[in-house]
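EI: anyone free to look at a 247-residue chain?
SC: sure, send it
EI:
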Amino acid sequence: MILLKNTSEYKKIKPQYMKYIDAAVKILKSCYRDKILEIRLQGSVSRGEEIPEVSDLDVLCILTKDNDTIKSNELLKNEKKINSEIKFLTGIDINIVNEKYLQENYDYWLIVCSDSLCLYGNNKYYKKEIIIDGKQLAKLWAPDTQYLIGHYRKCLAQTVKENEIRKISRLVGKDLIKSFRPELMKEYNIFHKTIYESCNDLCAINFTYSEYYISLLDQYLNPTNNKKEILALIDNVENMRNEQITT
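SC: here you go
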């Protein structure tokens, strides 16, 4: 069994991020008013485990019932403004969901309840601890690696701006490491929220492929604008996956 412990706490949020968080909450309240059930802060910033200039700010707005979750022009404009001003982090990502979506998607419900804190609302979607079978969690949180590989190859083929290529580079490192986490959950009942802890365990358990895991972590921490380097890493991961399937 795996214990998912919610370690997010308001006191762990660094003071330098508060003006961006407050700005996001303000604009969300202006856009959605009485449709809002909760506004939550997710991820590493809420846990005090963010990596400066690497992590981003994840804000989630949960609307009541089945209200429309399409971002308004006002929200898009202000989200862009916050992203142009934000310091210390790579940016802010504001997501909108409704209660119906959470009720129908247990995998995402788990993420919200086990890794976020309430900024506004009644804190309905908070669980201090959730105990779940490792095989069940692996099934719920197993990304489609082949889809990710194809998606990022396509993104790189269509992207020319250096800053956009770096963003893809970071996502390649982050998402492809995450794609190996289900093996830790299923076989060893191990789960870590941080990428570097997951990488350490993957290296310890499957040393043969440790070079690839470390390369993915480096891509996340030190993104490049070199397309050939990113594509070579993607190819290595695909070959590694194929080897694991055939052995």
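EI: The mean pLDDT is 92.
SC: 👍
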